[in-house]
């Protein structure tokens, strides 16, 4: 079930919210209802994946109990290592078995290529539970209520594509009896955040995908793109993946807010970053924090000298790239960002800070180049695009084309890219949500909204206008979701 589908918008979400609030008012276990609804949400994709999720939850719940019981003994550490190994083994089997066999065959092996269907969201719910097990061993988490643990892992807004949750971030909210009491402010704010995400996905990311896919999908013919076509394809994907994934995260946060539960922010205007370090503090923030807390710091972080720090950065980003998918292009993408981070730290130590405009342009150039490998099907196709971007295949014309195959008019593409790029410079989702929250909660006194002082009457008018605009965008999006498109991060 997609967030951008009629089933979710008009059936699952309203019925689940109604049931959650009703059961909570009756004094029953609203968390149990929400857990069952979340499992049903997951089973909607493929019911045969549900036992995999259920076994993962059972295994990690009891592993967490044992680790907590034996935490003061070496047996606790051994149980932690065994549980993490089992989790990574299951992830490797479903996600990387075919990739590893194909890679080994290129070196002369003759392994069978297994055609294994990847359970959706397995990377997210596996890493979420690994973080829980580590936190239990560190004495930072404990969960003895099985229903609460099921909900922690399966909670439908974050289950498929994040944000990744820490036990301490979410469990106190599930235990709060006020969470299941419907509040008009939570409902209104959640709807606005959800609609912002829906607009990002339906009205921005999906149109951009037509150009990005039109260019990258034709690379398999062997024809190389000219300079204009290559840059349009790379920029289209750069903007598509941001609006697609940040749109999903906004919808997850908005949907959860309607239930009175706050999820962590996952994006903070990453394309405004002026260096790669800053980019990774803004992009997919929950994954960045996971990699820092559970990989980079355990490797030694920056505590064992500069050389070891840079090695740790490279290893962390290589594994972060591999987490995204079973393809060497993802490893290269992660390796590039690891190298970028090392260079960034070295420049900070030995060079003066460059002008912000130059630093931003250089950062975006590095990000776009890396995204080419992320999007391409293989290394050769990525190099085709990069050669085109370098102008080695000619400048191009007013028609985007690869090998004589027309893709689209250059003017239309540039207009869409310009509009999408300009939107990245505007206030982000959380900034818009904060301003809307001011409108919701201001009653008597004047307040500042986007730096403008508004009287109570003006605030009321602004709230009404905001509601009308949100409704207009929502029904516009509904008109465009006849052909549903999955989110890019569903494949990870």
Explain what this protein looks like in three dimensions:
- This protein has 492 residues and is mainly α.
- The protein has two domains: 6-182, no CATH class; 187-424, no CATH class.
- 68% of the residues lie in helices and 3% in strands.
- The chain has 19 helices and four strands.
- A two-stranded antiparallel sheet has the order 1-2.
- α2 crosses α6 (146-154), α3 (50-69) packs antiparallel against α4 and α12 packs across α13 (306-324).
Termini separation: 16 Å
What is the 3D form?
globular
Count of alpha and pi helical runs: 19
State the strand order across the main sheet. 1-2
Q: Output the helix-strand order.
A: HHHHHHHHHHHHHHHHEEHHEEH
| Low-confidence residue ranges | none
Class inferred from helices and paired strands: mainly alpha
* DSSP E strands, number: 4
Structural domain tally: 2
Q: What proportion strand?
A: under 5%
Radius of gyration: 24 Å
Instruction: Report the helical percentage.
Output: 55-70%
- Provide the residue-averaged pLDDT: 89
Largest sheet: 2 strands, antiparallel
